[in-house]
Amino acid sequence: MLLFGIMLLVGAGCSQESLQSTTEMELLHAESSRLASVPADSIQRFATKVETYASQNPTVQTDPLWSEIIENIKSAARGASIHFVITINTEWDGEIEYYF
After folding, report:
1. Is the dihedral of CA 62, 21, 56, 82 positive or negative?
2. Which terminus of the chain is more exposed, N or C, with fewer CB under 10 A?
3. 38 domain residue, yes or no
4. What's the number of domains the chain is made of?
5. Could you report the per-residue pLDDT of 19-34, keeping only the tens digit for each?
6. Nearest CA to 64 among 23, 21, 22?
7. Eight-state DSSP code of residue 14
8. Residue 46 falls within a domain, yes or no?
9. If we measure between CA atoms, which residue out of 21, 70, 79 comes closest to residue 49?
């Protein structure tokens, strides 16, 4: 019963603005901000790193920095003429595909 009450409190009314980013997400964001100045293979390795992290930690997609990280990857990939797909397998809704 206590666990259910805690889950209700945690899940109720959480907006993205009130969420705090984890240290790992802050590091990924800082790294993604520098992607425009790295070679194409580094952009691909970073995208794979983000994909792996997100598949192991599906809740990171609710992090306020998530969309900025994805946008930084997309922008760097466009600048380097890279096209790739990141597929994240989630436990609750099947697959989510991000097209860059």
Report:
1. positive
2. N
3. yes
4. 1
5. 577 899 999 999 999 9
6. 21
7. -
8. yes
9. 70
